[in-house]
Write a structure and sequence with these properties.
The complex is a heterodimer of chains A (261) and B (270). With 261 residues, chain A is of the alpha/beta class. In chain A, 35% of the residues lie in helices and 25% in strands. Helices cover 83% and strands 0% of the residues of chain B. Classes of the chains: A alpha/beta (261), B mainly alpha (270).
């Protein structure tokens, strides 16, 4: 690629060491050097224990690195967080039972001090985008798991963050709901032009969604390969049946280190 | 026929009715046994109709009041003291829970004391409180408050602790200030727990108020109750008080339930 692209996130020799219950050091992540471009869809892929969530949390300032550092738009993760430029989607919907779907979407905007009218307009727009317009005044316990996760995504997009961090957001959903949300997420991403970091342990999911798949391997958690996914966009579900898609899946699978997992 | 019965048993009023019927049957069986074995059966367990007759009787039990009038006029002051103590205790309980949530050190220091206060019997606590306050009515309110505040404090604290890590993470990502986390996350999350605490505390406040009435004269349900038990007046006054306090206890629980229902719209639509 000849065009010059802006680097949004850059990690340098990033490492995280935890202490386990017995007080021994456990290396969750070591020596991660990664450059993520602005507007890119990046997947962090790997088996459990490979440090993919730790990497995501380090970028989000939810985890302090033990070694190395993270730079985002030339700032530290903390500075970026305090400017509220992150959107975070958890594996669980993390909705607030006592707020309607719309009020849930408005919550980060309330915290940031958006005016009432602005909050309401923006929440409506986000709910329309994720297809929950008719459920704005429902409470979370009235929604299905898939709808709850849509509300969660709407909330993360509500603040118009520069960077969206998604930690296995679809892993608890059934296959049909998941595929629908994949298509929706790609549509929203294209419309909003965010940088997305997506954590998953599902190879097909990573390949289908991403521009690049970062393969992480465990013991110790490290970045072992980056696979370019140069499938044309916009992608539809039929892409998954193409032989090229399956070639890429195989390529990603073969780039895990440490043998079978 | 069988299906109809199943539909009926699923109704809430049906189970309440069944429950009341069983209670009446058990009471009356007991009353019959007592009537045939004890010398003065009304001191042990009178028939329900005897209590109802006593309730509607126009005979004066004190100078100028019937049994029902005597119970209701004494109830006013006892329940007022109980209510004041309950509100005070609930408010203090909530504040204590908040303080213990804010500071882990304070929680470790305070909690054992709270448990200790709870362990002192009310009748032992009353003279101490009276000695400190010097006023019997103030000390009655304070004792109701002491009994109310513990269930409210512990339940509310459990509510604060029920908030999952992800919610804190989300607030952290939003760069929310601590007071925002309290007002928008922790306090609403603890609200159902707070109400559970209130439901436990309210009948305790009523019972405690009646109990501490007996410590000194000058009115209240407890005074009336002990006079009746000492046969200074009709024993049926005692039975009326028993039923009246049970009724108040149930009513207070219901009222708190309605208030909770009113402030928690999300529970209505589940």
């Amino acid at each position: 690629m000849s065009e010059v692209r802006d680097i949004e996130i850059k990690t340098r020799e990033l490492g995280v060491t935890f202490q386990d219950n017995a007080g021994r050091d456990v290396t969750a992540l070591t020596g991660v050097n990664l450059e993520i471009y602005k507007g890119e869809f990046i997947t962090l892929l790997g088996p459990s224990g490979c440090g993919k969530t730790t990497l995501l949390r380090s970028i989000a300032d939810l985890q302090k690195p033990t070694t190395g550092d993270v730079h985002i738009q030339g700032m530290t993760p903390k500075e970026v967080r305090l400017q509220q430029k992150f959107g975070f989607v958890f594996q669980q919907p993390v909705l607030f039972d006592w707020r309607t779907v719309k009020k849930n979407v408005e919550l980060p905007m309330e915290i940031m001090g958006y005016s009432k009218g602005e909050r309401s307009d923006r929440a409506d727009e986000m709910l329309e985008m994720v297809g929950l317009k008719d459920f704005a005044n429902h409470y979370p316990n009235q929604l299905s798991g898939g709808m709850q996760q849509r509300a969660n995504i709407a909330r993360a997009f509500g603040l118009d963050p520069d960077i969206l961090l998604m930690d296995e957001p679809f892993s608890a959903l059934d296959e049909f709901t998941k595929e629908k949300l994949h298509e929706d997420l790609l549509r929203i991403w294209r419309a909003t032009n965010k940088t997305i970091l997506f954590v998953t342990h599902n190879i097909q999911e990573g390949v289908f969604l991403s521009d690049r798949v970062c393969v992480l391997s465990p013991h110790p958690g490290r970045l072992s390969a980056i696979v370019d996914i140069d499938i044309e966009r916009p992608r539809t579900l039929e892409v998954k049946e193409s032989s090229y898609f399956n070639e890429l899946v195989t390529k990603v699978r073969n780039s895990f280190e440490g043998g079978s997992v | 026929m069988k299906e109809k019965f199943e539909v009926l048993t699923n109704k809430k009023w049906f189970s309440s009715l069944l429950w009341i019927l069983l209670l009446i049957i058990a009471w009356e069986v007991g009353a019959f046994v007592v009537a045939n074995t004890k010398r003065i059966p009304e001191n042990v367990l009178p028939h329900l109709y005897q209590i109802i007759i006593a309730g509607f009787s126009t005979d004066k039990v004190t100078g100028d009041m019937t049994a029902t009038q005597a119970v209701l006029s004494s109830a006013a002051q006892t329940l007022l003291r109980g209510f004041l103590g309950f509100v005070l205790g609930a408010a203090i309980g909530f504040v204590f829970a908040l303080v213990m949530k804010m500071s882990g050190v304070l929680e470790k220091v305070l909690f054992p004391y709270l448990m200790l206060i709870q362990l002192i019997p009310v009748l032992g606590l009353a003279p101490i409180v009276l000695a400190i306050t010097g006023d019997i009515n103030v000390s009655r309110v304070i004792i109701a408050a002491i009994l109310s505040f513990y269930p409210v404090a512990t339940n509310t604290l459990a509510g604060f602790k029920s908030v999952e890590k992800e919610k804190y993470d989300l607030m952290f990502i939003c760069a929310a200030k601590p007071h925002v986390i309290y007002t928008k996350v922790l306090i609403p999350a603890a609200l159902p727990y707070f109400f559970t605490g209130l439901k436990i505390a309210a009948p305790m406040a009523v019972t405690a108020s009646i109990l501490v009435d007996t410590l000194q004269g000058d009115g209240g349900l407890g005074c009336l109750l002990s006079q009746s038990l000492k046969h200074a007046m009709s024993i049926y006054v005692f039975w009326l008080i028993v039923f009246f306090s049970a009724f108040v206890g149930i009513l207070v629980g219901k009222v708190i339930g309605w208030i909770e229902y009113g402030v928690s719209p999300w529970k209505r639509r589940a």
